[in-house]
Every structure is written in structure tokens, then in C-alpha cells.
Amino acid sequence: MPVVPRRDYACGSMPTLADLDAPPRSRGRDLILGVLIALPVVLFIAYLTLPMFIGTIRGEANEYDQRLRQEDAYLQTVCSELLNMERDETLCECVLAVEFPSLDCRGPFLRWSLDRHAESCSDDAVRKQSISFCACVDAVHERVSEAEAAGDEGLARQEEARTAKCIELDDAFSLPDFETLVATAPPTPAAAESE
Fold it and tell me: Which of 24, 86, 104, 176 fits 98 for a cystine, CB–CB 3.0-4.6 Å?
């Protein structure tokens, strides 16, 4: 009697009786059902969180816009009413030529601000109240002065941009008010000659 060779079928290569009686369900229907259940949940979470997120962005944008407007008014007042050529010439050459000096004159403004803060920090009482800020201002002012003395304007502008980081410190103080600027202004050449 001839021997029939045995055939081993890999698992799953042939349908079973169970598969014939209950064919496997399509996954497409389960996927659609999952999406229909999850979509309202996602929309509800977005409904709760999106207005908050947009409100935060708008609040920050409004705060930034308000700060720029205050800086514009400050700079325009300095350059139109309190101009001191020795102190303000470089800054005001830019401020008086543009519409939005807080943006268009950022570099000269940071340099001017650095000088004013350095002057304020020379007062021991001010320094005691703003130790971290004055230390930051001193370090930046020294680096900028060294770069300018070496004739490296690119490095000087790069270093003076660090003034913005100092201003973000918790103990930072604002720029001098107009009365202080008038009181501390260097004497003009005409006034110096009359003396």
C-alpha cells in the first residue's frame, strides 16, 4: 500500500470550521465607532481649553503692545523735549526718524538704557535694593565698553542685546523718570562755556 506523505499546514493557512460558522468581523466598523465616541470628547475638551489658550495669547499680546506704546511715548518725549546731545544724540537720531522707535530703534535704545541703568546703579542705595540687576548691568556694560574700545562694533551690539535679559530679572527697575533725566543731564557746551 503506498504511503501518502503527510502535509503540515501552517496555522491560519486553512480556514477552520469556527471561521466558516462565524467569519471575523470587519475592523472598519469598530474604527468608525471609536471615532464617533472619541470625537465629542475631544471637541468638548477643546471647547473648554481653547478659549483659555486664546485668551492667554491675547493677554500677552496686549501687554506687549501696551509696553511698546509706553516705550514709544517715553522715547519721543526724551528726544523731543529733553534732548541732551551728549547723552541722547545716537538714540534720538533713530527715534526722530521712525514711527515706532521701540521696535525700529531697539539697538540704540538698549545701549541708551544700559547707560542709564549703569548710572542708576552707581547709587549705593539703589544697588542694595537691586543687587542682581545691578550686577547684570555692570557685567554687560563692561563687556560692551571693552568691545567698543577694541573697535568690534558687531560684538558690542551683540553684548548690549543682553541688557534685555537683565531687565527681566525680578529686582530690575524702570528707566529714570523725566525729572531725573533733566537733573542728571550732562551740561551742554554752551552751559559749560558760560560757567
Answer: 104
